[in-house]
Design goal:
Structural class: mainly alpha
Radius of gyration: 16 Å
Largest sheet: none
Shape: globular
Distance between the termini: 30 Å
């Protein structure tokens, strides 16, 4: 039955990723992959909130499967991040590639820590 929770979460996460990526990228006239950046940071925030809620006892393993593995697993994308960074490098946009790596790491970790801190303050 656990697999069904993962599937249900992914059924929301995958289209949400695609639609968010397209909507964000359409608003930016830049080679920087803003859409992928936004979905990855959103996923980090959600996982941080979920981790904080679990550690405070406000969420359990079923919610972890639904939101963590299913939704965030389909929402976020390391492979597209890697591909877009490589593509930036190959097209001579090395500064954008470096910015993508650094910004994704800093913003992703920041979002995860912020989410965990928010959850801890709400449910502690």
């Amino acid at each position: 039955m656990n697999w069904l929770l993962v599937v249900l979460g992914a059924m929301v996460g995958a289209p949400l990723r695609y639609l968010t990526d397209r909507a964000v990228q359409a608003r930016h006239d830049s080679v920087f992959p803003w859409g992928t950046f936004v979905v990855n940071v959103m996923g980090c925030l959600i996982l941080g909130l979920l981790t904080g809620a679990v550690s405070a006892g406000a969420a359990g393993p079923h919610l972890q499967l639904l939101l963590g593995t299913g939704l965030c697993g389909a929402l976020t994308t390391y492979s597209t991040f890697s591909y877009e960074t490589l593509r930036l490098t190959e097209t001579g946009a090395g500064l954008y590639a470096a910015a993508n790596v650094v910004a994704s790491l800093v913003a992703g970790l920041g979002a995860a820590f912020a989410g965990a801190a928010i959850a801890q303050s709400v449910w502690a």
